[in-house]
C-alpha cells in the first residue's frame, strides 16, 4: 500500500511537469507563431527590420536557445543600415534565458526517469491503481492552471513581473521598448499569447490523461464485477 501511494505521488508530479515543459518548448520554438505575431503587431515597422530579416534573426535567436550557436552577435539591416541587432544588456538577458531552458531540460529528463519508474512500479505492485493515479495526476494541475489562468486574465503584467523576479537574479529583463529591439520584437502581448497557448496545450493534455484514467478505472471496476 505504501509503495502504491509513493508511486502515485511520483507519477502525479512527474507527468504534469513533463507535459508542461514540453508544451513550453513546442510553443517557444514555433516559428509560425512568431511570424503571425509579427504581422499582427506590425513588428517590421516597430523595429525597422523587414519581415524576412526578422524571421532570420528569430531563427538565429532560437538556435542560440537550443545550443546550436554560441552567441547572439547577429547583424541585419535596421532602418536601411546594417548593424548589430542586440546590445549587451539584451544579450546578457538571453544568456539567463538560455540557462533557464537548460535547467528546464534537466528537470524534464529527471521527471521522465521518475515517471518511468512510477509506471513500472505501479504495473508490478498494483496495476489496478494506474487509472486512479492518472485521474489524480490530471486533477491537481488542472485546478492550479485554472487559478493561474484567472490571475493572468486579471493582470498578466503583474504576474509576468513576478515570474521574472522569481526566476531571474538580476534586472537585465527590464528592457527599454524605445531602444531595445528584443522587447520591440517580443512585446508583452506576445508573452501573454504564448502563455495562454501553453496553458491551452496543457489543459487539453490533462483532459486526455483524465479520460484515459477514467477509462482504466472503470474497466477495472467492470472486471471486478
TrEMBL record:
Task: Show the InterPro entries listed in the entry.
Answer: Lit
Designated name of the protein: Integral membrane protein TIGR01906
Q: Where are the transmembrane segments?
A: 105-126, 133-154, 194-216
Which keywords label this protein? Membrane, Transmembrane, Transmembrane helix
Q: Does the keyword Zinc-finger apply?
A: no
> What is the scientific name of the source organism?
Proteiniborus ethanoligenes
* Pfam families (UniProt xref): Lit
